[in-house]
Amino acid sequence: MPANLPPQYIAAEQKLKAARDPEEKIAILEEMWSLLPKHKGTDKIQADLKRRISKLKKEAEEGKKGRKGFSISVVREGAGQIVVVGPPNSGKSSLVAALTGENLKVAPYPFTTLLPCPAMMPWLDVQVQLVDLPAVAPGHVEFWCINIIRNSDAALLVVDASGEDCLDRVEEVLGELDQRQIHLGERQRSSSDTARGGGGKRTILVANKMDLGRARENLPLVSELHADRFDVIPFSCVAAVRDTIEALRKSAFTLLDVIRIYPKEPGEKPDLKQPFTIKSGSTVLDFAAHVHKDFARNLKQARVWGSARFGGQAVSRDHLLRDGDIVELSM
User: Fold this and answer.
1) Is residue 25 part of a domain?
2) What total of structural domains would you count in the chain?
3) Does pTM surpass 0.90?
């Protein structure tokens, strides 16, 4: 009997592949269990899910026995997870609200954000998860923030460009995170970083509050000092227009280094509403494995519209896919 897995189950399975935190994996596996049709055709899948959930819970419980305090994690959703970090009063929450349309708690005093605040940012036909985190200041980094930042796909580093001390604030944030082996900025990646388990995290430096004070005077200084480490993008949550917001959304999505692929069943029209997102440089076989392991194992033919020489061309398994491709897989 065929399993007949629903699209929501397949989407949850994709999220599981990207999950790194045990608690996040447990939450996704439990979601998959609730979505899984319960019949004879899924008996093996049901047993596997139960086994994996039980194993992860046991490991998590054993890990807690020798650990004091508590842990906070954020389940990854959408095309990827981008953390929003910065010093106090840099406007992180206002920025996330502008990009997502969500009503986050915003106040003109430091340390307003006490817990991670995830919100979904729309970009074209996908959603990107932004996670607003508590401020980073000298000697003040919430311990649970470290794993969230480390496990994220990319980061937005937000600074109040209107402040006279904005350059110092950036250095303070970078210094606090560097001490914890979190190195923002892909361009500063080096062999020594990799040896220490670090390496640069793809990051954009957002020069916020461009409508205030000395922001226009400070912007060239910020750009000059950090041009070798980040792309620096000026922004104002107060004066931002649609084009400015869309431009920053696009830049944030680009950080994820993913492409959108649209599935098509043989004889049917392609699904142009819910694309899969996979890493840039992926092949047809990579996409097949992303959809389901059975497709990768039993793939007989693939046809591609977009990057192929002509629409619907049969391509090899190692055909490189491009953003916006439509792919039909046949087993």
Assistant:
1) yes
2) 3
3) no
